[in-house]
Amino acid sequence: MTGQCREVAVTGLGVISPAGIGAEATWDGLLTGRSTAARDPGLAGLPVDISCRVPDFDTAALVGRKAAWRLDRFVAMALLAARHAVDDAGLRPADWDAARVGVVMGTGTGSMERYPGEFAKLAAGRPLDISPLAITRSVPNMAAAEIALDLTATGPNFAVSTACASGSSALGVARDLLRAGTCDIVLAGGAESACHAIPAACFHRMGALSQRTTDPAGACRPFDAGRDGFVLAEGAAVLVLERPAHARARGARPRAHLAGYGASCDAYHYAAPDPDGRGAAAALTAALADAGAAPADIDHINAHGTGTGRNDLAEARALRSVFPEPPAVTSLKGALGHAIGAAGAIEAAVTVLSLQRDTVPPTANHEDTDLDIDLDIVAKVPRTTAQSAAASLSTGFGGQNAALVFRSA
User: Fold this and answer.
1) Phi, psi of 193 (to 5 degrees)
2) What are the residues facing 404 on neighbouring strands?
3) For the stretch 306-340, what's the b/e string if a residue is b when 16 or more beta carbons lie within 10 angstroms of its beta carbon?
4) Considering the entire predicted model, what is its pTM?
């Protein structure tokens, strides 16, 4: 089947997050308004020793012992999320046209899990002890590659890396493949496991991490006057995107539609955002135009909301410039931490759930909105509100920006 389509159907979700394994566990955890941050034994001895890890993630038990020996944690999470998403969509890989099924996965760092041990072998003068699987366990494209191998998807297969916008960017690339008629189905999202010593030490030295190590659950405070940084996290999310005609032909009922995508680069600084949020605003404006939507059509925004001083302020300015009367705004990072390249995909999945349930989850730890941030932040408890369209925004190092617009099905 060829020819262009505009909106694409979201027919399945798979989410692995610090709130739990599965989309429903993640949703239920978010509605409590509580943080998942805790002391992390793997970060013991570092200035910041807290993180948001996925609980009870036993790779062998969850993805199978045969696969577990060669998979790094971020790849295993991606694979499990993909299986959940395909099952949720009611798809059977044995029945699909494998050449028309693509996979696009985002990651910001790839694997940080194996390399310290391999470097130690080199430092000890034992190069012949280096694992022959060190590369294939760790390179960024292995999440997409292993999903294709596991589910037999022989269509286009990509890894996308736009720092903390990677998961959202992957969904945009997937949308383009479907619009162009290249694929009928694309499994798209992001995966990351960066709760390791090197990234934790680096982010601390950059001043990006919250210093509230004696109060992990209260550490990350998006858009709050007392915010002082984010908490490192891990996780994965995969969305099944389909050409609408393909979904209809097999009797699938979409959860929502991905209607618009916009991307931009600040071209301002290698790490800091443009303080006026011009790049983020440009991505949002492009996503709205792509969806044929006006700012007033958007009923809620799932913000990037890292809980860092400059990022939250720049994002707030971007939202105010695009939305003269901003709708309800939430950030998941107070509850789930910052999963870097997986964050945008997890947030996109939750945006779909929010549309389906006419409910906006609260921003955990938000107590007092910064006086310089003029937004309607959903805090403390979920907000029930009728929704027909919502936006999700992601930004990242290098000035990366990606915005998505979803419509209710």
Assistant:
1) -140, 90
2) 261, 392
3) bbbebbbbbbbbbbbbbbeebbbbbbbbbbbbbbb
4) 0.97
Residue burial 76-111, b: 16+ Cβ < 10 Å; e: rest: bbbbbbbbbbbebbebeeeebeeebbbbbbbbbbbb
Residue 274, φ and ψ in degrees, nearest 5: -55, 120
Other C-beta atoms lying within 10 Å of the C-beta of residue 6: 13
- Measured between alpha carbons, how far is 237 from 20 in angstroms, rounded to an integer? 12
DSSP 275-302: TT-HHHHHHHHHHHHHHT--GGG--EEE
Question: Does residue 309 sit in helix, strand or coil?
Answer: helix
Inter-axis angle of helices 23-31 and 343-357, to 10 degrees? 80
Which pLDDT band holds residue 116 (cuts at 50, 70, 90)? confident
Options 52, 84, 164, 366, the catalytic residue? 164
Written as six digits, the tokens of 27 are: 């949703």
CB-count exposure of residue 228 (10 Å: 0-12, 13-18, 19+) = middle
Is residue 33 within 8 Å of residue 362, measured between CB atoms?
Answer: yes
| Joined tokens for residue 338 | 């910052």
Condensed to tens digits (0 to 9), the pLDDT of residues 159-179 reads 999 999 999 999 999 999 999
Told to judge if 304 belongs to the known catalytic residues of this protein, a careful annotator would answer: yes
The torsion defined by the Cα of 115, 120, 126 and 128, in degrees rounded to 10, comes to -10
- pLDDT tens sequence across 232-253: 999 999 999 999 999 999 999 9
Catalytic residue status for 164: yes
Q: What is the pLDDT of residue 1?
A: 39
Known catalytic residue at 196:
no
Which residue among 204, 300, 304, 366 is the active-site one?
304
Q: Which of 84, 204, 257, 338 is catalytic?
A: 338
State the amino acid at position 108 in one-letter form. G
